[in-house]
Write the structure tokens for this entry.
Amino acid sequence: MPENIKNISNSDTDRPIGVFDSGIGGLTVLKALQHHFPHESFIYIGDTARLPYGTKSPATVARYAESLTTEILRHEVKAVVVACNTASTHGLHAVKNLASPLPVIGMIDPAAKAAIAASRSKHIGVMATSGTIKSNAYQTALLQHNQNCKLSSVACQILVALAEEGWADDDIARATLHKYLDPIFHQADAPDTLILGCTHFPVFIPLIQEMLGHSVTLINSGEAASHDLLDVLETNTKSTQGKTAFFVTDDPHRFADNAAKFYDDRISADDVTLIDIR
Amino acid sequence: MPENIKNISNSDTDRPIGVFDSGIGGLTVLKALQHHFPHESFIYIGDTARLPYGTKSPATVARYAESLTTEILRHEVKAVVVACNTASTHGLHAVKNLASPLPVIGMIDPAAKAAIAASRSKHIGVMATSGTIKSNAYQTALLQHNQNCKLSSVACQILVALAEEGWADDDIARATLHKYLDPIFHQADAPDTLILGCTHFPVFIPLIQEMLGHSVTLINSGEAASHDLLDVLETNTKSTQGKTAFFVTDDPHRFADNAAKFYDDRISADDVTLIDIR
């Protein structure tokens, strides 16, 4: 058992894993976590009344992340996954302070480590929201793991709206992806690895992979975070399937309707609880 | 002097006009107001920490509109303009209650009246955010003014993101506008008038007018609201130019940087005050 969780008793393993996001994109992370932790239960909170975080200031995003952490800790979770790149960028420190000694996994560091491991050339691309790009969060994390790596990054704000509209595989999505990615990948020494630095972006994986070809490795934050969580968490050994409870700060029906774009299973609005967080 | 403002004294005419929006799109309304009221001063509040409103529930939007009204009344304004279609749809009643007896102008009714006046066929198109479209606010307002008018409406969520990204006149904007508007305008009996039912959309006027031709009249909410305000407000008779003070709930620098997409004059971040509204 790893040193950092030796004080968690057996009964603690039954606790759910807490996952929060600015809204709905974090469902791609939840999907990856459920795949890797099939016997775990999850609490998912989407801050749909205040989304999106990607265009907001560091101080505002940190304040939102703190309020969501306070809420998620009420559910006696055994770990917290910050399933939003922007909240991970600006709020992870605050979340860790509040949730200590529970393990806290953000989106940035796991994806940076996975990209370093996957890349042969150590030239890595990052596509993310403008907030994440402006923060240089990926650059900082990548250089921490490998001082020789090179980063090409692009803020792809429109993709969030396209993903939420369900326009993930049409000509407009294709033209938008070209406009954002061509300047990076049409250079002589192009990246061989691309971090999808926003939880909305996995819906574009088929189109991006078709555009870039299979010589470019795509890094999905949810997958990378799952691998990091496997390293630090004592998992539930019961063979029963875990349960997931959904909480949102705005209309549960809208959340349930839109969830299908990011999540394979159908979510009924009856299974989504409206909560008030300010 | 109209009956409803006879109790406003001369000194009251020096008071500013309050304008609020979910963020930055309301600057197109402010621009129209400043054109029609060159001697008036304005207070503009953009709720940039909680934008956008277009995808949020009626109850949440009404709560946000109330908090902004409370804030704007602190500035002793002589009228309130709700420069956001979604806030007008869900929050106008609450704003009027709070601001009474001051005149309150929303975006829906002025645009509906202007469209009825402009349309020969009385078949009117509306493009707006999904929140405004789902509410049937324009349908209700149009039928109130003319029971025989016909409405074709479309939710154009992506356009908000395109406008904020500054992609208002490229091939992606054109393809997106075609995808939204072609089903309405490629019918035998197409509308002859189109309401731009979101304050972000005036940035697309050149492209829309080019696509639809000049036989379709475009209704700009800011222009329509200015005409309604002229009817109810005793204006400042001083010949000096009015001043405008800007307040936002998130990063003033980001607001100032993005303002240029929606507003002709340059706004310096030093002229924008950060306020906390919850």
Observations:
- Chain B is about 45% helix and 15% strand.
- The beta strands of chain B are 17-21, 42-46, 79-82, 104-105, 123-128, 150-155, 193-197, 217-220, 244-248, 272-274.
